[in-house]
Amino acid sequence: MREDFLIIKTEYDSLYNTMLSEGRLPLKETELGYWGISTADDIFHLFQTLKLNKFKSFIDLGSGDGKVAMIASLFTKASGIECDKELVDHSKRIKKKLKLSAEIIHGDFLQHDLTSYDLIFINPDQHMTKLEPKLHRELRGKLVVYGPHYHPTLLKKEAGFIAHTSPVTVYRNR
Hints:
alpha/beta; Rossmann fold; two-stranded antiparallel ribbon; 34% helix
């Protein structure tokens, strides 16, 4: 699994180096928020810590370029949902090139049924004002919030820890 992870990491590093060489930062405003890169090593360590292989289904909300969903697909059935077509195209190209199983969905996660996922991942770039009531209704398993910024108030905090270098908090419905 480690070798497969390193192949994914290398592919995304190449994407970011290409963006930088073209004068573009790996940061983008989408119609629903901002996309920025997640650290591959942090994500892989997080999924090992969570024992992601014990979960049946995973979704990354606002999956950007798909890196988190691609790494998750090494552990379980994984999906990512993203509204930005350019980012979805990057995801699908890398998925095809590396022959990964992650499902990439072009759409708005606020319109997507989340009841079939037992682990939902988000790296929120804004308050969860619209998302949190939906999670309160549809969350059947766990919510993993990657990063220190925005956290739900209607859900129950189950755990908090540092995954490699990034703070992570796990929630469930009350």
